[in-house]
DNA sequence: TAGACGTAGA
DNA sequence: TCTACGTCTA
Protein backbone atom coordinates (compact mmCIF):
# COMPACT_ATOMS: atom_id res chain seq x y z
CA UNK A 1 0.00 0.00 0.00
CA UNK A 2 2.80 2.41 0.80
CA UNK A 3 5.04 1.14 -1.94
CA UNK A 4 5.32 3.58 -4.80
CA UNK A 5 8.85 2.44 -5.68
CA UNK A 6 9.63 5.36 -7.90
CA UNK A 7 7.01 4.77 -10.54
CA UNK A 8 5.91 8.06 -12.03
CA UNK A 9 2.56 8.51 -13.72
CA UNK A 10 2.08 10.72 -16.73
CA UNK A 11 -1.22 12.57 -16.97
CA UNK A 12 -4.17 12.29 -14.62
CA UNK A 13 -4.15 10.16 -11.50
CA UNK A 14 -7.13 7.79 -11.21
CA UNK A 15 -9.30 8.87 -8.33
CA UNK A 16 -7.93 12.41 -8.13
CA UNK A 17 -10.12 15.14 -9.56
CA UNK A 18 -9.50 18.76 -10.38
CA UNK A 19 -10.14 20.81 -7.25
CA UNK A 20 -9.13 18.11 -4.81
CA UNK A 21 -7.43 19.61 -1.78
CA UNK A 22 -4.48 18.36 0.23
CA UNK A 23 -3.01 19.60 3.47
CA UNK A 24 0.59 18.51 3.16
CA UNK A 25 3.11 17.89 0.43
CA UNK A 26 3.41 14.35 1.72
CA UNK A 27 -0.19 13.74 0.68
CA UNK A 28 0.56 14.75 -2.90
CA UNK A 29 3.34 12.20 -2.70
CA UNK A 30 1.10 9.45 -1.35
CA UNK A 31 -1.66 9.81 -3.95
CA UNK A 32 0.94 10.01 -6.71
CA UNK A 33 0.32 13.59 -7.84
CA UNK A 34 3.84 14.76 -7.06
CA UNK A 35 6.65 12.50 -5.88
CA UNK A 36 8.78 15.08 -4.15
CA UNK A 37 8.63 16.54 -0.68
CA UNK A 38 10.11 19.89 -1.49
CA UNK A 39 11.16 20.16 -5.11
CA UNK A 40 8.56 21.91 -7.23
CA UNK A 41 9.13 19.94 -10.42
CA UNK A 42 8.63 16.21 -10.78
CA UNK A 43 9.74 14.38 -13.89
CA UNK A 44 10.32 10.97 -15.43
CA UNK A 45 12.36 9.41 -18.16
CA UNK A 46 10.67 8.73 -21.47
CA UNK A 47 12.45 7.53 -24.60
CA UNK A 48 15.84 8.42 -23.22
CA UNK A 49 15.07 11.92 -22.05
CA UNK A 50 13.41 13.41 -19.02
CA UNK A 51 10.01 15.08 -19.24
CA UNK A 52 8.03 16.92 -16.58
CA UNK A 53 5.09 15.13 -14.96
CA UNK A 54 3.93 17.68 -12.35
CA UNK A 55 4.71 21.04 -10.82
CA UNK A 56 3.76 22.67 -7.53
CA UNK A 57 3.33 26.44 -7.15
CA UNK A 58 3.80 27.29 -3.50
CA UNK A 59 4.63 30.93 -3.74
CA UNK A 60 8.31 30.57 -3.00
CA UNK A 61 9.15 31.72 -6.48
CA UNK A 62 7.88 34.43 -8.75
CA UNK A 63 5.03 32.90 -10.72
CA UNK A 64 2.55 34.97 -12.64
CA UNK A 65 -1.02 34.21 -13.47
CA UNK A 66 -2.17 36.30 -16.40
CA UNK A 67 -5.17 34.24 -17.36
CA UNK A 68 -6.98 31.41 -15.57
CA UNK A 69 -5.74 28.95 -18.19
CA UNK A 70 -2.20 30.27 -18.59
CA UNK A 71 0.53 30.33 -15.98
CA UNK A 72 4.16 31.27 -15.89
CA UNK A 73 6.34 29.08 -13.74
CA UNK A 74 9.86 29.92 -12.65
CA UNK A 75 12.59 27.35 -12.98
CA UNK A 76 14.24 25.86 -9.93
CA UNK A 77 17.64 26.48 -8.43
CA UNK A 78 19.83 29.56 -8.32
CA UNK A 79 19.08 30.30 -4.70
CA UNK A 80 22.01 30.98 -2.47
CA UNK A 81 21.96 29.84 1.10
CA UNK A 82 21.07 32.46 3.66
CA UNK A 83 18.82 35.18 2.52
CA UNK A 84 17.24 32.63 0.18
CA UNK A 85 17.95 35.05 -2.65
CA UNK A 86 18.43 34.26 -6.30
CA UNK A 87 22.03 35.21 -6.89
CA UNK A 88 23.25 32.19 -8.81
CA UNK A 89 22.36 31.10 -12.33
CA UNK A 90 19.68 28.49 -12.77
CA UNK A 91 20.92 25.57 -14.80
CA UNK A 92 19.27 23.67 -17.61
CA UNK A 93 19.20 20.39 -15.73
CA UNK A 94 16.80 18.31 -13.65
CA UNK A 95 13.33 19.81 -13.45
CA UNK A 96 14.22 22.77 -15.68
CA UNK A 97 15.48 20.48 -18.43
CA UNK A 98 12.42 18.27 -18.06
CA UNK A 99 10.11 21.25 -18.60
CA UNK A 100 12.05 22.28 -21.70
CA UNK A 101 11.83 18.76 -23.12
CA UNK A 102 8.11 18.73 -22.43
CA UNK A 103 7.65 21.54 -24.94
CA UNK A 104 8.61 19.16 -27.74
CA UNK A 105 6.86 16.08 -26.42
CA UNK A 106 3.73 18.13 -25.66
CA UNK A 107 3.01 15.83 -22.71
CA UNK A 108 0.49 16.57 -20.00
CA UNK A 109 1.80 18.15 -16.81
CA UNK A 110 -0.20 18.06 -13.59
CA UNK A 111 -0.38 21.44 -11.88
CA UNK A 112 -0.87 21.88 -8.13
CA UNK A 113 -1.40 25.28 -6.52
CA UNK A 114 -0.60 26.08 -2.94
CA UNK A 115 -3.47 28.18 -1.62
CA UNK A 116 -2.64 30.70 0.99
CA UNK A 117 -4.74 32.32 3.61
CA UNK A 118 -3.78 35.12 5.92
CA UNK A 119 -3.17 33.85 9.39
CA UNK A 120 -4.08 35.83 12.47
CA UNK A 121 -1.55 38.62 12.70
CA UNK A 122 -0.75 37.91 16.34
CA UNK A 123 2.56 36.64 15.08
CA UNK A 124 5.51 38.75 16.06
CA UNK A 125 7.11 37.79 12.77
CA UNK A 126 6.54 39.57 9.54
CA UNK A 127 5.36 36.66 7.50
CA UNK A 128 1.74 36.53 8.64
CA UNK A 129 0.84 34.17 5.84
CA UNK A 130 0.78 30.46 5.56
CA UNK A 131 0.05 27.86 2.94
CA UNK A 132 -3.05 26.12 4.20
CA UNK A 133 -3.61 23.56 1.47
CA UNK A 134 -2.68 22.42 -1.99
CA UNK A 135 -5.22 22.20 -4.80
CA UNK A 136 -4.92 19.98 -7.86
CA UNK A 137 -5.56 22.27 -10.78
CA UNK A 138 -5.63 19.87 -13.72
CA UNK A 139 -3.52 19.17 -16.78
CA UNK A 140 -1.38 21.67 -18.64
CA UNK A 141 1.13 21.65 -21.47
CA UNK A 142 4.38 23.60 -21.57
CA UNK A 143 4.19 26.05 -24.49
CA UNK A 144 7.56 27.75 -24.43
CA UNK A 145 10.26 29.10 -22.18
CA UNK A 146 12.64 32.01 -22.00
CA UNK A 147 15.36 33.38 -19.78
CA UNK A 148 15.26 36.44 -17.59
CA UNK A 149 18.02 38.23 -15.81
CA UNK A 150 17.72 38.70 -12.08
CA UNK A 151 18.99 41.57 -9.96
CA UNK A 152 22.41 39.98 -9.61
CA UNK A 153 22.71 39.39 -13.34
CA UNK A 154 21.76 35.79 -12.70
CA UNK A 155 19.84 33.64 -15.14
CA UNK A 156 16.24 32.63 -14.38
CA UNK A 157 14.15 30.32 -16.52
CA UNK A 158 10.48 31.00 -17.10
CA UNK A 159 7.99 28.52 -18.51
CA UNK A 160 4.57 29.30 -19.91
CA UNK A 161 2.01 26.56 -19.44
CA UNK A 162 -1.51 26.44 -20.84
CA UNK A 163 -4.37 24.36 -19.54
CA UNK A 164 -5.28 21.49 -21.83
CA UNK A 165 -8.57 22.35 -23.56
CA UNK A 166 -11.52 20.28 -22.46
CA UNK A 167 -9.34 18.36 -20.07
CA UNK A 168 -10.18 20.16 -16.87
CA UNK A 169 -11.85 16.98 -15.78
CA UNK A 170 -9.14 14.36 -15.52
CA UNK A 171 -11.53 11.51 -16.15
CA UNK A 172 -11.91 12.58 -19.75
CA UNK A 173 -8.27 11.87 -20.42
CA UNK A 174 -7.89 8.71 -18.41
CA UNK A 175 -5.99 6.03 -20.31
CA UNK A 176 -4.98 8.54 -22.92
CA UNK A 177 -1.94 7.30 -24.80
CA UNK A 178 -1.24 10.30 -26.89
CA UNK A 179 1.53 12.61 -25.84
CA UNK B 1 -10.95 17.56 10.57
CA UNK B 2 -7.47 18.91 10.02
CA UNK B 3 -7.67 21.41 12.81
CA UNK B 4 -5.62 20.44 15.80
CA UNK B 5 -5.02 24.03 16.81
CA UNK B 6 -2.19 23.35 19.16
CA UNK B 7 -4.08 21.29 21.69
CA UNK B 8 -1.73 18.81 23.25
CA UNK B 9 -2.93 15.59 24.83
CA UNK B 10 -1.34 14.09 27.89
CA UNK B 11 -1.20 10.30 28.08
CA UNK B 12 -2.70 7.86 25.62
CA UNK B 13 -4.44 8.91 22.43
CA UNK B 14 -7.89 7.39 21.95
CA UNK B 15 -7.79 5.00 19.03
CA UNK B 16 -4.03 4.59 19.02
CA UNK B 17 -2.68 1.36 20.47
CA UNK B 18 0.78 0.23 21.43
CA UNK B 19 2.45 -1.25 18.36
CA UNK B 20 0.62 0.93 15.84
CA UNK B 21 2.86 1.80 12.92
CA UNK B 22 3.21 5.03 10.98
CA UNK B 23 5.11 5.81 7.81
CA UNK B 24 5.80 9.51 8.24
CA UNK B 25 6.31 11.97 11.03
CA UNK B 26 3.37 13.91 9.65
CA UNK B 27 1.12 10.98 10.53
CA UNK B 28 2.18 11.12 14.16
CA UNK B 29 1.21 14.76 13.97
CA UNK B 30 -2.19 14.05 12.44
CA UNK B 31 -3.25 11.41 14.95
CA UNK B 32 -2.00 13.58 17.80
CA UNK B 33 0.82 11.36 19.04
CA UNK B 34 3.51 13.96 18.44
CA UNK B 35 2.84 17.50 17.27
CA UNK B 36 6.18 18.26 15.68
CA UNK B 37 7.56 17.51 12.25
CA UNK B 38 11.16 17.25 13.25
CA UNK B 39 11.72 18.00 16.88
CA UNK B 40 12.01 14.86 18.96
CA UNK B 41 10.39 16.24 22.12
CA UNK B 42 6.84 17.49 22.34
CA UNK B 43 5.57 19.26 25.43
CA UNK B 44 2.73 21.32 26.88
CA UNK B 45 2.18 23.82 29.62
CA UNK B 46 0.66 22.58 32.86
CA UNK B 47 0.27 24.65 36.01
CA UNK B 48 2.68 27.26 34.75
CA UNK B 49 5.50 25.01 33.68
CA UNK B 50 6.18 22.89 30.65
CA UNK B 51 6.10 19.10 30.81
CA UNK B 52 6.94 16.55 28.14
CA UNK B 53 4.07 14.76 26.38
CA UNK B 54 5.90 12.62 23.82
CA UNK B 55 9.33 11.79 22.42
CA UNK B 56 10.47 10.24 19.15
CA UNK B 57 13.63 8.14 18.85
CA UNK B 58 14.75 8.20 15.25
CA UNK B 59 18.36 7.26 15.63
CA UNK B 60 19.78 10.71 15.02
CA UNK B 61 21.01 10.88 18.55
CA UNK B 62 22.74 8.48 20.86
CA UNK B 63 19.99 6.60 22.69
CA UNK B 64 20.62 3.44 24.58
CA UNK B 65 18.28 0.61 25.29
CA UNK B 66 19.48 -1.41 28.25
CA UNK B 67 16.25 -3.15 29.02
CA UNK B 68 12.98 -3.42 27.09
CA UNK B 69 11.26 -1.23 29.67
CA UNK B 70 14.02 1.32 30.23
CA UNK B 71 15.44 3.74 27.72
CA UNK B 72 17.94 6.54 27.77
CA UNK B 73 17.09 9.52 25.63
CA UNK B 74 19.49 12.28 24.65
CA UNK B 75 18.43 15.90 24.98
CA UNK B 76 18.02 18.10 21.96
CA UNK B 77 20.20 20.85 20.60
CA UNK B 78 23.92 21.39 20.63
CA UNK B 79 24.41 20.47 17.02
CA UNK B 80 26.45 22.81 14.92
CA UNK B 81 25.59 23.32 11.30
CA UNK B 82 27.64 21.39 8.80
CA UNK B 83 29.00 18.15 9.95
CA UNK B 84 25.90 17.86 12.13
CA UNK B 85 28.23 17.35 15.06
CA UNK B 86 27.59 18.05 18.70
CA UNK B 87 30.05 20.80 19.46
CA UNK B 88 27.81 23.22 21.34
CA UNK B 89 26.29 22.86 24.78
CA UNK B 90 22.72 21.68 25.06
CA UNK B 91 20.60 24.07 27.05
CA UNK B 92 18.03 23.46 29.75
CA UNK B 93 15.17 24.91 27.75
CA UNK B 94 12.31 23.76 25.54
CA UNK B 95 12.08 20.00 25.29
CA UNK B 96 15.00 19.39 27.63
CA UNK B 97 13.43 21.52 30.34
CA UNK B 98 10.09 19.81 29.81
CA UNK B 99 11.66 16.39 30.36
CA UNK B 100 13.32 17.59 33.55
CA UNK B 101 10.04 18.98 34.85
CA UNK B 102 8.32 15.69 34.04
CA UNK B 103 10.50 13.97 36.61
CA UNK B 104 8.71 15.87 39.38
CA UNK B 105 5.23 15.75 37.92
CA UNK B 106 5.65 12.05 37.08
CA UNK B 107 3.40 12.50 34.07
CA UNK B 108 3.02 9.94 31.29
CA UNK B 109 5.16 10.44 28.21
CA UNK B 110 4.30 8.75 24.91
CA UNK B 111 7.29 7.06 23.31
CA UNK B 112 7.62 6.48 19.56
CA UNK B 113 10.45 4.45 18.04
CA UNK B 114 11.67 4.86 14.50
CA UNK B 115 12.29 1.35 13.16
CA UNK B 116 14.97 0.97 10.59
CA UNK B 117 15.45 -1.65 7.95
CA UNK B 118 18.38 -2.18 5.69
CA UNK B 119 17.61 -1.01 2.20
CA UNK B 120 18.98 -2.72 -0.90
CA UNK B 121 22.60 -1.72 -1.16
CA UNK B 122 22.33 -0.65 -4.79
CA UNK B 123 22.76 2.86 -3.51
CA UNK B 124 26.02 4.51 -4.46
CA UNK B 125 25.93 6.28 -1.12
CA UNK B 126 27.25 4.79 2.05
CA UNK B 127 24.08 4.99 4.08
CA UNK B 128 22.29 1.85 2.94
CA UNK B 129 19.76 2.26 5.73
CA UNK B 130 16.48 4.05 5.99
CA UNK B 131 13.80 4.65 8.57
CA UNK B 132 10.83 2.75 7.24
CA UNK B 133 8.24 3.40 9.93
CA UNK B 134 7.53 4.70 13.40
CA UNK B 135 6.04 2.52 16.11
CA UNK B 136 4.07 3.76 19.10
CA UNK B 137 5.70 2.12 22.07
CA UNK B 138 3.42 3.10 24.92
CA UNK B 139 3.63 5.23 28.04
CA UNK B 140 6.75 5.97 30.04
CA UNK B 141 7.78 8.17 32.94
CA UNK B 142 10.98 10.15 33.21
CA UNK B 143 12.94 8.82 36.18
CA UNK B 144 16.01 11.05 36.31
CA UNK B 145 18.54 12.87 34.18
CA UNK B 146 22.23 13.65 34.15
CA UNK B 147 24.78 15.46 32.05
CA UNK B 148 27.53 14.00 29.96
CA UNK B 149 30.46 15.67 28.31
CA UNK B 150 30.91 15.26 24.57
CA UNK B 151 34.13 15.11 22.59
CA UNK B 152 34.30 18.89 22.32
CA UNK B 153 33.75 19.35 26.03
CA UNK B 154 30.13 20.15 25.26
CA UNK B 155 27.24 19.41 27.58
CA UNK B 156 24.74 16.68 26.66
CA UNK B 157 21.64 15.83 28.69
CA UNK B 158 20.54 12.25 29.15
CA UNK B 159 17.15 11.17 30.44
CA UNK B 160 16.21 7.75 31.73
CA UNK B 161 12.63 6.73 31.11
CA UNK B 162 10.84 3.65 32.38
CA UNK B 163 7.73 2.07 30.92
CA UNK B 164 4.66 2.53 33.08
CA UNK B 165 3.84 -0.78 34.72
CA UNK B 166 0.68 -2.45 33.46
CA UNK B 167 0.07 0.41 31.09
CA UNK B 168 1.44 -1.13 27.94
CA UNK B 169 -2.11 -1.13 26.70
CA UNK B 170 -3.22 2.49 26.51
CA UNK B 171 -6.87 1.58 26.93
CA UNK B 172 -6.29 0.71 30.56
CA UNK B 173 -5.27 4.27 31.33
CA UNK B 174 -7.77 6.14 29.20
CA UNK B 175 -9.33 9.03 31.06
CA UNK B 176 -6.77 8.71 33.79
CA UNK B 177 -6.36 11.95 35.67
CA UNK B 178 -3.43 11.01 37.78
CA UNK B 179 -0.04 12.07 36.61
C1' DT C 1 26.43 13.84 0.09
C1' DA C 2 23.75 17.80 -0.87
C1' DG C 3 19.76 20.15 -2.34
C1' DA C 4 14.74 20.72 -2.67
C1' DC C 5 8.62 26.09 -3.89
C1' DG C 6 8.54 21.51 3.44
C1' DT C 7 6.32 22.53 8.13
C1' DA C 8 5.30 24.18 12.85
C1' DG C 9 6.61 26.24 17.04
C1' DA C 10 9.46 29.24 19.98
C1' DT D 1 14.08 34.43 12.25
C1' DC D 2 15.76 30.17 13.32
C1' DT D 3 15.75 25.50 14.75
C1' DA D 4 13.98 20.91 14.67
C1' DC D 5 15.93 12.94 15.76
C1' DG D 6 12.15 15.23 8.28
C1' DT D 7 12.17 12.94 3.73
C1' DC D 8 13.15 12.08 -0.98
C1' DT D 9 15.84 12.04 -5.39
C1' DA D 10 19.95 12.66 -8.10
Sequence-ordered SSE layout with sheet pairings:
Two copies of one chain form a homodimer.
Chain A: E1 21-22, H1 25-31, E2 41-46, E3 49-57, E4 64-67, E5 70-74, E6 79-80, E7 85-86, H2 94-105, E8 109-118, E9 129-149, E10 155-163
Parallel strand pairs in A: 3-8
Antiparallel strand pairs in A: 1-9, 2-3, 4-5, 5-10, 6-7, 8-9, 9-10
Chain B binds a DNA duplex (10 and 10 nucleotides) through residues 6, 24-26, 29, 35-41, 55-61, 63, 74, 76-77, 79, 93-95, 114, 124-127, 130-131.
Subcellular location (chains A, B): Chromosome; Nucleus
Organism (chains A, B): Protea cynaroides
Domain YDG (chains A, B): 11-163
Structure description:
The structure is a homodimer of 179-residue chains. Chain A contains 2 helices and 10 strands; from the N terminus they run βαββββββαβββ. Chain A has 179 residues and is mainly beta. In chain A, the strands form 2 sheets. In chain A, strands 1, 2, 3, 4, 5, 8, 9 and 10 form an 8-stranded mixed beta sheet that branches. A two-stranded antiparallel ribbon of chain A has the order 6-7. In chain A, a hairpin with a 2-residue loop joins β4 and β5. The N terminus and C terminus of chain A are likely disordered. Chains A and B meet through loops of A and loops of B. Chain B binds a DNA duplex (10 and 10 nucleotides) through α1 and β3. Chains A, B: It is found in: Chromosome; Nucleus. Chains A, B: This is YDG domain-containing protein.
Amino acid sequence: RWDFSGEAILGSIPGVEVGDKFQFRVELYIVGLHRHFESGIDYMEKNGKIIATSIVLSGGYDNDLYDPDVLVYSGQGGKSMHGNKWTKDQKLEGGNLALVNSIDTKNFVRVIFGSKEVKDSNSIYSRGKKVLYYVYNGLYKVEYYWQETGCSGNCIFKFQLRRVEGHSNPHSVKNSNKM
